[in-house]
Each structure stands twice: as structure tokens, then as C-alpha cells.
Write a structure and sequence with these properties.
Layout: H1 3-9, H2 11-30, H3 36-60, E1 64-67, E2 75-79, H4 81-99, H5 110-129, H6 133-151, H7 158-189, H8 194-204, H9 208-225, H10 233-240, H11 243-267, H12 283-293, H13 297-316, H14 322-342, H15 345-348, H16 362-396, H17 407-410, H18 412-426, H19 432-447, H20 451-479, H21 493-511, H22 514-521
Antiparallel strand pairs: 1-2
Helix pairs in contact: 2-3, 2-5, 3-4, 3-5, 4-5, 4-11, 4-16, 5-6, 5-11, 6-7, 6-11, 7-8, 7-9, 7-10, 10-11, 10-14, 11-16, 13-14, 13-20, 14-16, 14-19, 14-20, 16-18, 16-19, 16-21, 16-22, 18-20, 18-21, 19-21
């Protein structure tokens, strides 16, 4: 192994770890007796600076693969392409999360909170770049352990402690499932490299044990993205965690997890003309092996997608807490996103109807691009939504629906941001949420004309209409109903600027979706 290459590929993560040390040294060593707002400003500034430098490191990286083993028989980490886009999104969302601290003072241990956020973000970067089962597990555990701590950081809140305990117990169980599934995959193939696992399973054909391993891996990763039936932790965690922690869980965790799922999808089908089309097997033979082998895997993903759309949207209708409403909304959005992954030809076997050549692969990249576009735009919108909820909660002491009564009179800018973000989550044009759904559903239908994909897209559209109802319940209180109190809701100037920037980005990318879409599709 070339350690210079290892350092170069892991430079973004290294920068974040250095920022962690600086935050702790400055906060605990130099500002221990300073005022809380001074410590907060210093820790947040250092954390955001670390994210900016790490983002620059990501942009400087080219497309490369870090090899391991004497023969270079597998990729350990990757840079560039979808990895670069996902890592950039993780760093931007982390920086925005840190800024939300200005309007959500729930602890005096500011330095430790920022440090844990940055370490969890480093785990997210590893997950997005991982090409090996061991690296995936290390990244997931680094991210997950940070999220457990962040959830429990409001020490004076019983809900925070309860949510953290539930999150930890469910997370430990999911890690066991995931590791058990990985061990089966290693035992069946003799490798931990994703592409080599797919290659060897294609040549040998799946055994019953392979399907057991697949189910275990789906269960483990399903917990990370809160897909039905592994979603039970999400409502309590979104409600009980401090607002910045909940925003981090709802955004960074989602981007990292779906980046991993995209990596699995793109590794578990052959790269045209790649090194794996060797050993005397033609590309056509290997492709036919894929399409003959993997159709059964789609059943699990399609069922989970449909269940998440239905359960998430219908459960959100009954919520009186905006945080819990956003949690069930997140479950529904996971269902939409998972539809794009589940409908991929690798999982559905629809590719048997097309010619077996390298060009037939490139349209599939559009599906993965639509998935990544959806994840990034949803995560950005959710961070802004939790920012608004944090401000209202700090002012009123609750996140109930009625706490938003008359918000347009108490703070017109905040109400305008809420309007833009919630309408975007509902998929109203010309906001970015509409284009995210449109691109994803169009990509699915363009690749598959069968009854099942068409029916699921129709279900997704119907559930999107349902989601509009509960989003409008919040907006009705903000714009139509009279406020209980006439006192103005004050917002920190920096928080105001960030929330306005997020709302502006939602509108701008909605009007010009190629600003983000061209960058994603460019890879």
C-alpha cells in the first residue's frame, strides 16, 4: 500500500479530524471561562472553516481508486464522480448544521458537540467513498456512534435521553445484522471488495445463503435510512434530539447512507470494458449472468419502498408535533428515493430486453443521478425546516402545530422560509422538490415500461398529494390562523441569513435544476 496515496484520498477526513482537535483545544484550553456565546461562535467558526477546507480538498481530488493488496485486486476507497458530489453535500450540510447552533442553546459543552458533529461527518465521508465491506462498516460505526451521542446531548431533556437510548439499541441491533450479512458475503466469495463480490457471485450463481446475506444487509442499511419496517426509531429521535442534531441526522446521515446504496448499485453491475470482464468471460456472458441472477433482489426493495411511502405519509397525517411530522415525512421520502434504486435494471432484470453492449449501461447512470439529486435537495430543505422549527421552539417552548399560529405576523421572513421549504417538500413547482420527484419518476419510467414500475410511480404521486395536506396544516397555522401571542419571534442574524440562503437555493435550483443536475450528470 502506498501511504502517500492513502493520505491523499483521505485528506478530507483528515482535515475534519484536525478541525476537531482545534475546536477542543480552543474551547477547553483558551475559552473555558469565556461567555457561552463567545465559545459558541468560536467553535462554530472553526467547525465551518474545517468543512470549507475539507470541501476544497474534495474538489481538488481527481477520479481515482486506492488499491490494496500486492496484486491491486480491489479498490478500498474512491474519489471523484458521485463520491465527490456526495462528500461535498455532506460537508455543506454539516456546516449549515453548525450554524443552527446560534438559535438552539441546549448545552454548555459547545466544543464537544461541534467535535462530535465533525467526527460523525468524517464517518459520512468514509461511507460515501467506501468500496470495501470493512471500510463501509468502519464508516457506518463512526457516523452512528456520533449520532447516538448527539441525540443525547440535551442532558436536561428526558425526551433526549429516551430517544438516544432507543436509537442506540436499534442501531446496535442493525449493526449486528449488517456485520452478519457481510460475514456471509465474505464467506461466499473470499473477498470484501464490492466489485469482486459481485463478479464472483455472478460467475458461481447465487446460493440460498447469498439471499440470507442480502436480507441481513438490507435490514442493517434499512435502519440507517429509516425505511419501513426499520423506521421505529426515527419519530422519537427527531422529536427528542436537539434541533441541530435532528437536522444532522435527517440530512447528513441520509446523504451518506444513500451514497453507500448508490455505490452498491454501481459496483454490483459491471463497468463496461472494466478489468472484471476477464478470465475468458465476455461482457455479454457476464451481463446475462447478472440479469439472470439478480431479479429476485428487487422484491425486497420494491416492497420496502411502497410500504415506506404509504406508512410515512399516512402516519404523518395524525401528528401534532412538527418534528414527528418531519420524521414520518422523511420515511415517505426514503420510499420515493428507494424506488429509484429498486427499479434499477440490475435489481429488476429488465435489461434482458436491451442489447448487451457498453452503451446500454449509460442510461442507468441517469437513474443514479436522479437519486443523488433527490437526496441532496431533500437534505438541504430538511436542514432549513429544522432551522425554522428550532427558532419557533426556542421562542414558544414547544414544537406543536399550534406553536406556528400567526407566524407570518410574528416574523414574516421566517414564515416565508417555512412556506418555501414545506412547499418544496410537498413537490410543488417550480421549487426544487418538484424537479427532484419529476426527475426520479421520469428516470424510472424511461427505463421500465412495465406495470409494476408504472404502478409504483402512480402510488408515489398519490402519496405526494397526501403529503401536501399535512404540510398545508402547518402553513395554514402560519398564514391563516390568528396568533395566540403578538410578541415578535426574534432570530439570530446569522441564522436568518442562512435560512434565507437555503430558501433562495431551493427556489434557484428549482428554477434552474441544471445548476446541480449538470454537475451530477457530468460524472
Amino acid at each position: 500500500m502506498n501511504y502517500a496515496d492513502l493520505f491523499r484520498v483521505t485528506l478530507p477526513e483528515t482535515v475534519l479530524e484536525i478541525a476537531v482537535l482545534l475546536v477542543l483545544v480552543v474551547d477547553l484550553g483558551f475559552l473555558r471561562k469565556a461567555a457561552l456565546n463567545v465559545r459558541l461562535a468560536a467553535a462554530a467558526a472553526l467547525g465551518v472553516a474545517g468543512c470549507v477546507v475539507s470541501l476544497a480538498a474534495v474538489q481538488l481530488e481527481g477520479v481515482s481508486w486506492l488499491r490494496f493488496g500486492a496484486g491491486g485486486d480491489g479498490a478500498l476507497l474512491a474519489t471523484g464522480g458521485f463520491t465527490s458530489v456526495a462528500q461535498s453535500g455532506i460537508l455543506v450540510l454539516t456546516a449549515l448544521t453548525l450554524v443552527l447552533l446560534f438559535d438552539s442553546l441546549f448545552t454548555r459543552h459547545i466544543g464537544e458537540f461541534v467535535a462530535v458533529v465533525l467526527m460523525a461527518a468524517a464517518g459520512g465521508l468514509l461511507i460515501a467513498a467506501a468500496q470495501d465491506l470493512l471500510v463501509i462498516f468502519i464508516g457506518l460505526e463512526l457516523l452512528s456512534l456520533g449520532l447516538y451521542i448527539l441525540t443525547a446531548f440535551a442532558k436536561s431533556s428526558g425526551k433526549s435521553a429516551e430517544a438516544a437510548m432507543k436509537y442506540y439499541l436499534f442501531g446496535g441491533m442493525s449493526a449486528a445484522f449488517l456485520l452478519f450479512g457481510f460475514s456471509y458475503l465474505y464467506g461466499l466469495t473470499g473477498t470484501t471488495n464490492l466489485a469482486l463480490i459481485q463478479y464472483r457471485m455472478t460467475l458461481s450463481g447465487p446460493s440460498p445463503l447469498f439471499y440470507v446475506a442480502w436480507i441481513l444487509v438490507v435490514a442493517g442499511l434499512g435502519f440507517k435510512i429509516a425505511v419501513v419496517p426499520f423506521h421505529l426509531w426515527a419519530p422519537d429521535t427527531y422529536e427528542g434530539a436537539p434541533a441541530p442534531a435532528a437536522a444532522f441526522i435527517a440530512s447528513v446521515s441520509k446523504v451518506a447512507s444513500f451514497a453507500l446504496l448508490i455505490t452498491l448499485a454501481m459496483n454490483w453491475w459491471l463497468r463496461p470494458g472494466g478489468d472484471l470482464a476477464a478470465d475468458g468471460h465476455t461482457l455479454e456472458q457476464l451481463l446475462r449472468g447478472y440479469y439472470r441472477t439478480w431479479p429476485q433482489l428487487a422484491i425486497v426493495l420494491l416492497v420496502a419502498s411502497a410500504a415506506s411511502m404509504v406508512v410515512g405519509n399516512l402516519a404523518a397525517l395524525a401528528q401534532s408535533s412538527v418534528r414527528r411530522l418531519l420524521a414520518y415525512s422523511a420515511i415517505a421520502h426514503v420510499g420515493y428515493i428507494l424506488l429509484g434504486l429498486a427499479a434499477h435494471p440490475v435489481f429488476t432484470g429488465q435489461g434482458t430486453a436491451v442489447a448487451f453492449n457498453a452503451d446500454s449501461f449509460f442510461p442507468e447512470l441517469h437513474t443514479m443521478g436522479a437519486v443523488l439529486f433527490y437526496v441532496l435537495t431533500y437534505a438541504l430543505t430538511t436542514v432549513g425546516a429544522f432551522g425554522v422549527v428550532a427558532v419557533v421552539e426556542r421562542s414558544t417552548g414547544t414544537d406543536k402545530l399550534d406553536s406556528f399560529l400567526g407566524l407570518h405576523k410574528r416574523n414574516p421572513l421566517l414564515a416565508a422560509v417555512l412556506l418555501v421549504l414545506f412547499l418544496s417538500l410537498a413537490g410543488i413547482p417550480p421549487l426544487v422538490g418538484f424537479w427532484a420527484k419529476f426527475n426520479l419518476f421520469a428516470a424510472v419510467l424511461s427505463l421500465h415500461g412495465g406495470a409494476i414500475p408504472f404502478s409504483l410511480v402512480c402510488l408515489a404521486i398519490a402519496m405526494s398529494a397526501v403529503s401536501l395536506f399535512y404540510y398545508l396544516q402547518v402553513l395554514k397555522r402560519a398564514y391563516v390562523m390568528q396568533p395566540v401571542s403578538e410578541s415578535r419571534i426574534e432570530v439570530h442574524p446569522i441564522t436568518t441569513l442562512v435560512l434565507l440562503a437555503i430558501a433562495a437555493a431551493v427556489v434557484l435550483v428549482g428554477c434552474f435544476p441544471t445548476l446541480l443536475g449538470a454537475r451530477i450528470e457530468g460524472f
